[in-house]
Amino acid sequence: MPGYGLEGAPARILPWEWAETRLAASRNYYVSTVSPAGRPHCMPVWGVWLEGRFFFSTGAQSRKARNLARSPRCVVCTEGASEAVIVEGEAEALADAALFERFAEVYETKYGFRPQQDGDLTFAVRPEVAFGFIESEEFPATATRWRFPGQPGAAGRD
User: Fold this and answer.
1) What is the DSSP track for 115-153?
2) What pLDDT sits at residue 130?
3) What is residue 12's predicted lDDT score, i.e. its pLDDT?
4) Is 10 within the bounds of a domain?
5) Would you place residue 107 in the very low, low, confident or very high pLDDT band (cuts 50, 70, 90)?
6) Domain of 39: which CATH number?
7) What residues contact 81, with CB distance under 8 A and at least 6 apart?
8) Which residues pair with 54 in a beta bridge?
9) Which of 58-62, 113-117, 145-149 has the highest mean pLDDT?
10) How far is CA 129 from the centre of its chain?
11) Is residue 107 part of a domain?
12) Collapsed DSSP state (helix, strand, coil) of residue 94
């Protein structure tokens, strides 16, 4: 991947399906947001990969929710660094009741707990740019960046 000290490495670009498999299978995720003062804030969450987006719920007064209300840009990482997937995107509070029901069903199947809409906010993170790699002797060859044309901020970001 040019610009990451990997020039000259034989490329073995990972397919997006590889990333989606890990995004769906991860049990724990890290969501990073930015405070009004510009301080980074990273917290573990449970969530699901559904319809090309990452969904998670949090308390309406949590720091994550307050930060996202001010600036929707965030980063989502899977729990494992040996086969890492990092998604940069924008979070949007979920207002669609039918989509919330699909999210809640998948979430309940995965975690044995059904999220409720009362009191919590559910966010959907739409990818703009994503990164993935396999940590092994093949790392330089597997480092991959995906861009999502048509998404705000996807052009020209590294």
Assistant:
1) --SSSEEEEEEEEEEEEEEE-STTHHHH-EEEE-TTSTT
2) 97
3) 65
4) no
5) very high
6) 2.30.110.10
7) 135
8) 49, 125
9) 58-62
10) 10
11) yes
12) coil
